[in-house]
């Protein structure tokens, strides 16, 4: 080991002695290294620095973790020195992590979520990335964490226990922070995650949802089609949105991802890519032949990559849906506490298929439900598109929203009756 001030040639061509001290030593692999001696103003302090480095080399050589005194000394070193020691291999990445603010780790975590793919092979949605990072940041702020070494299981559990949210939301916060902890470990930023052992809580749906009857669905379509614009969506557009949900079973976020190119109107099908569906499988839904011609008029003149519906945020869509329910005279919550939500439109498709006497296999295929491992239905029973076509064609003949609007404009008295 040698501590010295190196010589260098200046711009004037003369040799000068550097102001900074350097340590020359051999690491645990007997490779000669040279690192700057940071924060040491005296030779005695520099010698102490060299002794601690030698102790670190010995511990690394024998595969031992630094003792308490050596660990405390490492935590006091500047970030640049820790990174240099980590590059050499004398310390693990956790010592570098200890000096980086958690806010920087969260920013890197968000970037990783955005630029990588999830286990299902598709990129994560911006909404998922936003929600996950927001939940992680909330826990960090609520617990007062500044560095990764501040994170404890007890503090996180206490913070989560104070959340006044439903059990499902509680588990979402917990899962987000556990994912962040796993990411820290897998990327070498921490040796272990203190929150790995936190268990989710059981949850049950507090309120029940019901399907809309055929009469209620018809009233909803008429109320929406003749209603005012809400959040940038015209009444007719909302009516077509509801009708599409009623006849295809697509969920709210799946409807948001529909483009004009998803519609094959010659074959009367709608195809949504696997990256946009809940089960991450391509969803090809049949529509009625007569309905395909109506969609052709509705989508005429649009670019193939254009969105079918100009939908605002989820909260705004649901608010407009509640307004249309009110205009249709449908209670969003009945006396028993049973709710009518946007997902009730998908329930309506299931109920309509029951009324058409569709087989269980046909209902499962159209609704894109798994069979929970039932080999009789899943493996030994197959359906061709022609089999499903009959079930789809037997669905109720809901009114076409643009036609409702056109008829009301031609007969003002009919519009008053609906209102």
What is the share of helical residues?
40-55%
So how many helices? 19
Mean pLDDT: 86
Q: What pattern of helices and strands is seen along the backbone? A: EEEEEHHHHHHHHHHHEEEHHHHHHHH
Q: Would you identify the regions where 5 or more consecutive residues have pLDDT less than 50?
A: none
The coarse silhouette is: elongated
Distance between the termini: 91 Å
Question: Going by CATH, what is the homologous superfamily of the largest domain?
Answer: Intergrase catalytic core
Oligomer: single chain
Task: Provide the gyration radius in Å.
Answer: 32 Å
Number of domains: 3
State the main characteristics.
single chain; 419 residues; mainly alpha; hpI Integrase, Chain A; 3 domains; three-stranded antiparallel beta sheet; 19 helices; elongated
Please, could you describe this protein's structure?
The chain is mostly helical and 419 residues long. The protein has three domains: 2-91, no CATH class; 102-186; 214-418, hpI Integrase, Chain A. Helices cover 50% and strands 7% of the residues. It has helices at residues 43-61, 68-75, 79-88, 93-97, 102-115, 126-143, 153-161, 167-186, 214-225, 235-248, 252-256, 289-298, 314-327, 344-355, 360-367, 375-378, 385-393, 401-410, 412-418; strands at residues 2-4, 7-9, 15-17, 22-26, 32-36, 263-264, 269-272, 283-286. The strands form three sheets. It has a three-stranded antiparallel sheet with strand order 1-4-5, covered by helices on one side. Strands 6-7-8 form a three-stranded antiparallel sheet. Strands 2-3 form a two-stranded antiparallel ribbon. The N and C termini lie far apart (91 Å).
């Amino acid at each position: 080991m040698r501590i010295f001030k190196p010589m260098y040639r200046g711009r004037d061509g003369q040799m000068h002695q550097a102001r900074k001290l350097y340590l020359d030593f051999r690491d645990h692999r007997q490779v000669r290294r040279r690192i700057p001696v940071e924060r040491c103003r005296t030779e005695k302090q520099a010698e102490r620095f060299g002794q601690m480095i030698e102790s670190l080399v010995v511990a690394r050589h024998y595969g031992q973790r630094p003792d308490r005194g050596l660990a405390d000394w490492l935590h006091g070193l500047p970030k640049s020195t820790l990174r240099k020691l980590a590059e050499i291999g004398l310390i693990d990445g956790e010592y570098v992590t200890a000096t980086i603010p958690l806010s920087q780790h969260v920013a890197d975590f968000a970037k990783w979520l955005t630029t990588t793919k999830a286990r299902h092979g598709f990129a994560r949605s911006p909404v998922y990335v936003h929600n996950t990072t927001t939940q992680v940041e909330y826990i960090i702020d609520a617990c007062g964490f500044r560095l990764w070494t501040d994170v404890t299981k007890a503090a996180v559990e206490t913070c989560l226990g104070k959340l006044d949210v439903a059990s499902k939301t509680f588990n979402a916060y917990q899962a987000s922070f556990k994912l962040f902890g796993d990411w820290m470990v897998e990327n070498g930023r921490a040796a272990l995650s203190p929150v790995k052992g936190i268990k989710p809580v059981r949850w049950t749906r507090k309120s029940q949802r019901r399907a809309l009857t055929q009469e209620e669905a018809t009233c909803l379509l008429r109320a929406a089609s003749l209603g005012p614009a809400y959040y940038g969506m015209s009444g007719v557009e909302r009516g077509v949105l509801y009708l599409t949900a009623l006849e295809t079973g697509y969920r709210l976020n799946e409807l948001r991802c529909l483009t004009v190119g998803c519609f094959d109107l010659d074959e009367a099908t709608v195809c949504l890519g696997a990256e946009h569906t809940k089960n991450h499988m391509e969803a090809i839904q049949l529509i009625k032949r007569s309905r395909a011609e109506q969609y052709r008029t509705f989508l005429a003149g649009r670019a193939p990559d254009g969105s079918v519906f100009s939908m605002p945020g989820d909260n705004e869509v649901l608010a407009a849906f509640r307004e249309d329910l009110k205009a249709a005279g449908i209670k969003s919550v009945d006396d028993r506490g049973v709710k009518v939500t946007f997902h009730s439109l998908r329930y309506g498709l299931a109920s309509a298929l029951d009324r058409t006497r569709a087989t269980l296999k046909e209902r499962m295929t159209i609704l894109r439900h798994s069979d929970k491992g039932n080999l009789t239905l899943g493996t030994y029973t197959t359906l061709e598109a022609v089999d499903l076509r009959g079930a789809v064609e037997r669905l109720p003949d809901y009114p076409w929203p643009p036609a409702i609007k056109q008829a009301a404009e031609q007969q003002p008295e009919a519009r008053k009756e609906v209102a």
